[in-house]
Amino acid sequence: MYKKTILGNGVRVITETMPAFRSASIGIWADVGSAAEQRAQRGVSHLVEHMLFKGTTTRSAREIAETMDRIGGNLNAFTDKETTCYYARTIDTHVPLAMDVLSDMFLRSTFDPHELAKEQNVVLEEIKMYEDTPDELIHDLFIQTMWSGANLGDPTIGFEETVTRLTSDDLRAHMRRHYAPNSVLVAAAGNVDHDQIVALASAQFRDFSGTCALPDAESPMTIPDTFVRRKDSEQAHLVLGVGGLSVRDERRYVLSIIDTILGGGMSSRLFQEIREKRGLVYSVYTFQAGYRGAGLFGVYAGTSPEHVQPCVDLIAEQFELLREHRVSDDELHLAKEHIKGSITLSLESTSSRMIRLGRNEFALGRHVTPEEIEERIDAVSAEDVRSLAAELLGDERVGLCVLGPLDEAAVAWRSSAA
User: What class does CATH assign to 2-204?
Assistant: First the structure.
């Protein structure tokens, strides 16, 4: 039930119809994120996202909020390193109104300086919130360490000094540089009619014209390092990882299997070894950070300071086992079924489907069906897993970041005790 239409001005309209649902999710996407920003303006994409909720030429910020509240809908947005998305979720009969509100915000926001000053303070509070959320902050520190000096390495939210310098003119200039028909798409999923979404988009974007330079996919050099930041807390938080794969790399399906085997669930190797057998952590998991030109693969664990080194050594042991030994047929089958089941469950959300539509169009230029994903997962062999693990998980490629009440001398990758 996937359809795609390109409007006369170049705006793409993509829909996935799910007739069994009463809800619909609609998103307006821009092909720009923090990786396309000038370093002195780090955080401008995220601040633009905030300001689009603060009033247009036809609606105040309160009227935007009340319009969606009256129909029981949700209005939100997100900015990441490569894209920005403004989206609404509502029941199917209110799709035209949701589309009207979203396009009004997208095309006619005023960037009032008084509202901007208030919203800059809001973003500064958001930065402080991350500083007080160590299990979130450690991921930013890991990316900054592994991709030091790269745009992909810096936090999307920006820094206090860059956010506070931005003006309304800076935000308008950013939109002129990066928001144009060739960099914008409308995605909708749920109980939607493709022709209706095309008609609504055609009407709302009829005066939207021009072109812009599309961002290049950044491929930063990965520099493994050990970084420890002292912070008074009960737990220490660590991320240990390596350079991974881009979302355009066909081996990403193999990496998903590795991800699942190592730390993708309660039966995963790291969960069983570190939590179940030894009780060293409450939370331990693996993750992928994949972008168009680069990627990272890592392990997160939160533990007591005295248990940091034992956790690091156990992770090193599991990396080595996966590099050196073939996974069993049973473990490989379990990982495949886990991934396929997770995909199926995620597809029961109209928001998840809408987000998949936008991400795949920008990153891959096409729709990737669940059936294709399942076929590619099923095709992964035990030798594929061992080969990629040997390539990615070598000791010389590992970086380590720790946040907590300990000094750098207290932890090392591959300690003498390992």
Answer: alpha beta
